[in-house]
């Protein structure tokens, strides 16, 4: 890879405060800006996305569904709307790890395994229907005790996934494109 950049959207954290209203337009505009960056017009570029864990602990499910609908619309139409041919991979969320050290900042009555699975399954289903490639990290994270807290994992856990993404990127994606034939229906 020529260049690897990470864009973290720290504005998500303020939505943990019940007095702050979630504004999906802010997130979608930030993503539009990513697609407008130099190099993102190339089909050799790769954008890996994930919002599940943060949104699962902060939003009602109906609001999450609306956000995912707007997100998939943007992703499907990124070439027409923004001139971006960058390939997109949706990374599923990681499992909640109850074996690691608990971090009080991540203890939330809304952050339960069932809730995380619901949000993850819905997003996965919508990405499948939109023919967005998916990197499923949930099983990898579920199988490891090497967590630093409930939601973060030690460096190295996802190296194989990163290797797979590198090869995916170098190969120009999946050719022919392979999509999941069975998606979870909402």
Defining traits:
mainly alpha, Rossmann fold, disordered C terminus, 186 residues, 42% helix
How would you describe this protein?
The chain has 186 residues and is mainly alpha-helical. The chain has a domain at 42-166: 3-Layer(aba) Sandwich (Rossmann fold), CATH 3.40.50. Helix 3 crosses helix 6 and helix 4 packs parallel to helix 6. Mean pLDDT is 73; it is low at 176-186. The chain is 42% helix and 6% strand. Helix 6 (113-129) links the parallel strand 2 and strand 3 (133-135). It starts with 10 loop residues before the first helix and ends in a 16-residue tail after the last helix. It has a three-stranded parallel sheet with strand order 1-2-3, sandwiched between helices. It has helices spanning 11-14, 24-35, 52-58, 61-76, 78-82, 113-129, 138-142, 159-170, and strands at 46-49, 87-91, 133-135. It has eight helices and three strands.
Give the helices and strands, then pairings:
Layout: H1 11-14, H2 24-35, E1 46-49, H3 52-58, H4 61-76, H5 78-82, E2 87-91, H6 113-129, E3 133-135, H7 138-142, H8 159-170
Parallel strand pairs: 1-2, 2-3
Helix pairs in contact: 3-6, 4-6
Spatial strand order of the main sheet: 1-2-3
Order of helices and strands: HHEHHHEHEHH
CATH architecture of the domain at 42-166, please? 3-Layer(aba) Sandwich
| Rg calc | 16 Å
């Amino acid at each position: 890879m020529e260049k690897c950049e990470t864009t973290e959207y720290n504005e998500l954290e303020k939505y943990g405060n019940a007095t702050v209203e979630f504004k999906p337009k802010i997130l979608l505009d930030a993503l539009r800006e990513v697609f407008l960056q130099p190099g993102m017009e190339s089909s050799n570029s790769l954008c890996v996305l994930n919002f599940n864990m943060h949104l699962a602990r902060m939003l009602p499910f109906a609001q999450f569904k609306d956000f995912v609908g707007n997100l998939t619309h943007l992703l499907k139409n990124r070439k027409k709307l923004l001139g971006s041919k960058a390939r997109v991979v949706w990374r599923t969320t990681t499992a909640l790890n109850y074996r690691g050290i608990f971090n009080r900042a991540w203890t939330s009555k809304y952050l339960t395994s069932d809730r995380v699975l619901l949000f993850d399954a819905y997003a996965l289903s919508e990405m499948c229907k939109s023919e967005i490639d998916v990197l499923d990290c949930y099983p990898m994270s579920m199988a490891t005790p090497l967590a630093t807290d409930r939601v973060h994992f030690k460096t190295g856990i996802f190296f194989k996934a990163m290797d797979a993404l590198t090869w995916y990127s170098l190969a120009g994606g999946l050719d022919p494109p392979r999509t999941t034939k069975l998606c979870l229906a909402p």
